[in-house]
Each structure stands twice: as structure tokens, then as C-alpha cells.
Amino acid sequence: MIRRSVHTCRERHWSARTASTVLAIVLALVARPSLGQAQPKPVIPAPFLAGSSSEFRQLLDAKEYEKAVALARQVLGEVEKRPNAGGNDLQVALMNLALAQYLDGDYAGAEASYLRVIALIEASGRTTGARLARAQAGLATTYYAGKRYDLAVVRYEQAIALARREQGLFTEEQIPFLEKYATALVELSRVDDALRARRYILRAIERKYGAASLRYAQELESIGRWFTRIRSYDAARASLRSAIAIVEDAKGENAAELIGPLTALAECARRQLLDPSTARAATPDEQRQSMFHDSMAPVLPSVSPNTIATEGLSSLERAVAIADRQAPPSPAQVADVRTLLGDWYQSRNQAEKALPNYQLAWQAAASATADGKPVTELLFGHPLLLAYVPPGSWSRYAGRPADEVVLREAQIAFTVTARGHVANPKVVSDAGDPSRGVQAQRAVQAAIYRPRLEQGIPVDTPGVTLDQPFYVLIEKESDEPAGAPATEATPATQPESLPAPANSGG
After folding, report:
1. Where do runs of H (alpha helix) occur along 230-383?
2. 288 CB contacts (<8 Å, ≥6 apart)?
3. Which of 78, 331, 411, 440 could form a disulfide with 468 if both were Cys (CB 3.0 to 4.6 A apart)?
4. Residue among 104, 117, 36 at smallest CA distance from 64
5. Hey, what domains does the chain have and what are their CATH numbers?
6. Would residue 349 be called left, alpha or beta, if left means φ above 0 and alpha means ψ between -120 and 50 degrees?
7. 401: how many CB neighbours lie within 10 A of its CB?
8. How many CB atoms lie within 10 A of CB 446?
9. Range with the lowest mean pLDDT among 47-61, 78-92, 122-136?
10. Is a pLDDT exceeding 90 seen at residue 505?
């Protein structure tokens, strides 16, 4: 998956509520699906007008969404001119327009179209039905894409309820709704509800395919990656190990299907090792040390960083070996796993070990394409953020009510060196307070990137920017004279000094 060289930290942090409760200070790490993973395709209802259906589908397949919107509007206009417009034809035309608007990134337009469809269906007296479920799900997905998670959850719940009425419990058709529903719940700090949704998905897969099937293993992998994203590392490992065991029993120890869960297990290890809470747990304070020496104190078992690192690295090396042994090897797959192995070393400040893997990935990718683009461009066309710890104060007020905080962003510009480190960071915007710019600048200095490659050689990339959000407490109205400038309450503490990664340099 290609990433822009302009990295927006807000996209990598959880929501305000999640940041302040479930996840606290979260690492801004890239969650990248494998190049070999199929992406879900939208269900496209046919437009009403004869002859336009194939053209509409072709435009969507070609990702010419602006033209698809124009065609859908044309169809809608002609339907609306018909006598007594408002029935099935109008609903289908609106559904097509909403889908095209959503894919074109016009979430406000898609919202309006979906709401109109829902109103038409409900006005007809049909409060159930597959189309109403699809419209509710489309509206929910639109809200989800716009990060309006509270609204998304409500609409997903309605879509799921309608689907269950039509299809029954534990059907595979409900899974796309449930996956985004679970993620939206996490964004709202409703982790227990999200976990129930993920378990429901697993039950649906088990019911249709069986607990020993490859499809079940794929879902365990998906759940394991989800647990990793919410920093539930032990649960992630358990899920991914189960997936690996199922695939081994079904296909053998060298099956290509093992690459997914093996790389997911390695990603879990990589994230946990870079998580500040792991470092704190590995260096107990005086109180913890005294507890550990108390034979009567109940101590929960923990996994040491060395054990985590060993499992993560061995999982990646095994995935690489499996990819190399395929007959014939898939260039895109080999490039993908070699890149992940390079990222492992790069994240651990072992650039001398990362580079050979990046170069082998480049060689494998030279003849491969994905999504119509050269794989070399997708993997190495831009620096990719691998590890970044945000300033500790960025989410200090994130748990406050929405009318008490305002979001401000500090922007830092810098060069990503050929070794993947940050050089010459400069504050472009300090988010209204010089201390925030200083904090963001210090945090960026410790970031680690996958470097950009040209002809297989890592090169410096100037002009990279990173936007660090800060949730700032708004001051209450005071007795200041009218016309006085509004102020914001900022933390009284000095900017935190974040440790630079070992062997940093550029």
C-alpha cells in the first residue's frame, strides 16, 4: 500500500476518547495489509436506465469516480422527471449516486443521498428489507470514512439488525458491516462491545466453514491484527498462533497461506517492542521489584522483550523462506515479505541488516505490478513512517467534552535520510504555542522511516512533513474587556524530552 510522503499524525492516532482511556499514548505505526490481500469490492446496484449500467460499472472499476457521479446524477435527473417518481427506480438511482459520491470522497453528498433513500423506503411503509439494510450500511460507512464514529455506530447497528431479520443470525453477508462496526466502537472506547462484534464474526465463519477451515484461520488472522491495533498483544498472539496451527494442519508447514498469519505475528511483536508500555513493564520500579521477591504475591506471567523479539523475527524469516520456496515464487509476495523483514530491522535501528532485505525486495518487485502501479513504487516510492512516539501531552485533554477542547496541529518539516532517520527538523506551525512546536520537533527527531529507494539505492528525501495534533483546553469566558483576544489553556509543564532511538544518526 503506497503512503504519501506527507504524514498526518492525526490519521495514525485513535480518537480523542480512545486516546484518553483505552489506548492512552499510542504509537503511530503503519498498519499495512499484505500486497496479496484482496480488497473488498462494493456491491453496485444497476442504474435504472437501460444501457447505462455497464458504463457505470466500468467507470467504477476504472476508479473514474467523478465521471461516475456525473452519470449517476444524469440518471437520477431523468428518473425524477418521470410521473410519480419516488418508487423503486428513484431509490436505485439514489443508491448509485450515493455510492459514487462516497467513492469520490464527497461524504456530505453521499450522506444526503443515503438519507434520502432511507426516507423514501421508510415512507413507503417498508421498515425492513435488503435495500434499507444496504442504505443504512452505506450511510454508516460514509460516516466511518469521515471519522464520525458515533453516527457510524448507530447506523451500523440498524443495518446489522435489518440484515439479521432478513438473513438470520451468523451469516457471512453481515461481516463487512461488523468489521467496521467493531473498529468504530474502539474509536468510541467501547472495546467490550467491539470484542463481542469480532466474536460474532468468528462464530459466523465457524458456522459456515468449520473451525478447522482456512476461512476460519483467515478470520483468526484478521482478529489477531485487530488485537494488535488496540494493543491487546497477548490476545493477538493467541489468535495468530491458532491461525498458524489450523493452516499447518490443513496445508502443511510450507503452505503459502501461512505467510499472512506469520507476518501478522511479527507485526504484533514489532509494535509491542516499540510500545513505551512494554519498556516500562520490562524495567519494574522499586515497588514492583519488592512484589516480585514476595513469594506470596500473585504475579501474572509476562512475556519478556527477548522472547517477543525472537518470535517476531523467526516468524518473518519463516515467511520469507515460504515465499522463496513457492513454485514459481510470486515476485509481489517475495517483495512484500522481504520489505517487512527490512522494516523489522529498520524499526530496531539495524539499518545495516534492513538494507539488504530492502534491496532484495526491490529486485523481486522490479517486474511486478499491483493496483496498476509498479510494486517498487508502492513499496519504496516514498518514505514510510515505521515508528513514532507522540509527545506525552498531545492527548492530555482528549477526554474532555467536545465543547471544552479544540484541536490544534503543529507541523514539522524535515528530511528523511537514506538511513531512515530524521534530519534538519523545522517547525512550520507551532499550533499557536511555541512549546507545542518544540515538543513535536523533539518527537519527530526520534521517528524511524523506511527510506525511499531509487534504482534500489536508499536516498535522502527532503520536504517530508508531519502534522502532530494537540487537544487544547479552551478557557472559560472571563471578565476580560470586550474585544480581548480569545486564549487557550495550555499545559503548565515544560515540553517533555523524548529519548532518541539508539544508533540514531543519519
Report:
1. 233-251, 259-274, 276-282, 286-292, 305-325, 331-347, 351-365, 375-380
2. none
3. 440
4. 104
5. 28-281+307-385 (1.25.40.10)
6. left
7. 6
8. 16
9. 47-61
10. no
